[in-house]
Amino acid sequence: MTELPPLRDVIARHGLLADKSLGQHFLLDLNLCARIVRTAGDVTRGTTIEVGPGPGGLTRALLEAGANVIAIEKDPRCGALLGELADAYPGKLEVIPGDALKIDAATLGTAPRRIVANLPYNVGTELLFGWLENVTAFESMTLMFQREVALRIAAEPGTKAYGRVSIMAQWLCHVEIAFDINPRAFTPPPQVDSSVITLYPRPAPLAPANRATLERVTASAFGQRRKMLRQSLKSLGGDAIALCEAAGIDPTARAETLTVQQFCALANVVDGLENARDTRG
Ligand code: SAM
């Protein structure tokens, strides 16, 4: 095992006071960091992309497990500290300073690629939606979110947590909730519980559909989640009842009862109607 000074000492030496605007809650318990890495499976092949290494607890665990890590960190104060970590593991850690929202993770390093990250909660969902754009570039994504968001990503139809993010994530990935982490494990502790989840991209989406149309249909249906589809889908601009019937769906159903496949069926009918309208001119 590589001998490194305790994380708390490194943080103190570099004066790294947590910055709330960057969603900084540091995980200093190296056993928990190692548990996240174990959840990600075999990290020795290809590239492991970490977003937001901060003081590098999770990064240490990844390196210790034999990963080749490319880490993207927005906070320039972490540069020197992460540089020391890179020196301790020559050739194994590349740090990219910058905003992960503006960097295409799907092209970093070599395949197989996986993402392992304790995400900044303020941009966690936005980052996930970005990675879903090119999801087959990754073999897995092991991510820590605030528990409520993790539950939404993994939610099943018929539950309160089920919504837009559940459909888009599950359409493209198999989702597993791994374990929860108590706020006290972090410095400073966040107001909320956290959960680690793994998303395994499917070789092909659960059912065929155009992504943009599926996003439009789910946004419309869940825009008024308490309303029946015959009402909520009116915002798509056509005859909502005819749309549901053409997709074989009860127009009096509510969005949260529909499966991902049923949303895909709705999206396909919308596309069919719009294409027919375009052809007629
Ligand atoms: N991985 C560290 C840990 O587990 O202790 C830190 C996790 S902390 C919850 C989130 C990290 O993401 C912080 O280091 C923060 O500076 C960084 N961060 C915030 N927004 C970012 C962005 N848009 N791109 C890259 N890093 C970001």
Could you please describe the fold and organization of this structure?
- The chain is α/β, with parallel strands linked by helices and about 280 residues long.
- The protein is built from 11 helices and 9 strands.
- The strands form 2 sheets. A 7-stranded mixed sheet has the order 4-3-2-5-6-9-7.
- α5 links the parallel β5 (about 115-120) and β6 (about 140-145).
- α2 crosses α3 (about 55-65) and α8 (about 210-225) packs across α11 (about 260-280).
- The model has no long low-confidence stretch (mean pLDDT about 95).
Give the helix/strand class. Answer: alpha/beta
Quote the distance from N terminus to C terminus: 68 Å
Query: Could you say what the CATH topology of the largest domain is called?
Result: Rossmann fold
Runs with pLDDT <50, length 5+?
Answer: none
Distinct small-molecule ligands in the complex:
S-adenosylmethionine
Strand order of the biggest β-sheet: 4-3-2-5-6-9-7
- Topology order in helix (H) and strand (E) letters: HEHEHEHEEHEHHEEEHHHH
CATH architecture call of the largest domain: 3-Layer(aba) Sandwich
What's the CATH class label of the largest domain?
Alpha Beta
Strand content: 15-25%
Total number of β-strand segments? 9
Largest sheet: 7 strands, mixed
The average pLDDT score comes to: 96
- The DSSP helix count reads 11
Helix content: 25-40%
Radius of gyration: 21 Å
CATH H-level superfamily of the largest domain: Vaccinia Virus protein VP39
How many domains, in number, for the residues? 2
In one word, what is the shape?
A: elongated
